[in-house]
Automatic annotation (TrEMBL):
Gene3D superfamilies according to UniProt: 6.10.140.2160, Terminase, small subunit, N-terminal DNA-binding domain, HTH motif
Keywords: Viral genome packaging, Viral release from host cell
Top-rank lineage group of the source organism: Bacteria
InterPro entries: SPP1-like_terminase (IPR052404), Terminase_Gp1_N_sf (IPR038713), Terminase_ssu (IPR005335)
Coiled coil location: none
Lineage: Bacteria, Bacillati, Bacillota, Clostridia, Lachnospirales
Organism of provenance: Blautia hydrogenotrophica (strain DSM 10507 / JCM 14656 / S5a33) (Ruminococcus hydrogenotrophicus)
Record-level GO BP terms: chromosome organization
Keyword S-adenosyl-L-methionine: no
Protein name in UniProt: Terminase small subunit
Length: 128
């Protein structure tokens, strides 16, 4: 996507405001009401806008690793609540259940998960 600096500025402004005329005005076009709509019709500009929007959307959505890290932090008691208090035991147990759901659903996966859980409980002095 080879865009001129002005087209790139237009596209970036368009992503912010969503208005072609306003984006063209901020990008420095002399006839923003005409050139804004013309830019949106250009394949290179619209492709750039679509790609940037996809990147923005992807950065807003948590990926699997981020979710698992969050649940693990809650389970370990590393996350505080809105009053800077330790997470309740019920929240920590719920995080543990959510993590266990993500293990392989096959019998081998269940056995592995239960074996790991058994080892952790033995380490902390729990009894199954």
């Amino acid at each position: 996507m080879n865009l001129t600096p002005k087209q790139k500025a237009f596209a970036d402004e368009y992503l912010i405001c969503g208005n072609a005329t306003e984006a063209a005005r901020k990008a420095g076009y002399k006839q923003p009401h005409v050139q804004g709509s013309q830019n949106l019709e250009k394949l290179s500009v619209s492709a750039y806008i679509a790609e940037r929007q996809k990147q923005i959307d992807n950065s807003r959505i948590a990926d699997v690793k981020e979710v698992l890290e969050f649940y693990s932090s809650v389970l370990r008691g590393e996350i505080k609540d809105q009053f800077d208090m330790d997470a309740a035991l019920s929240d920590r147990l719920a995080a543990g259940r959510e993590l266990m759901k993500r293990y392989d659903k096959s019998d081998d996966g269940k056995k592995d998960a239960l074996t790991k859980l058994d080892e952790v409980l033995k380490e902390i002095g729990g009894v199954i």
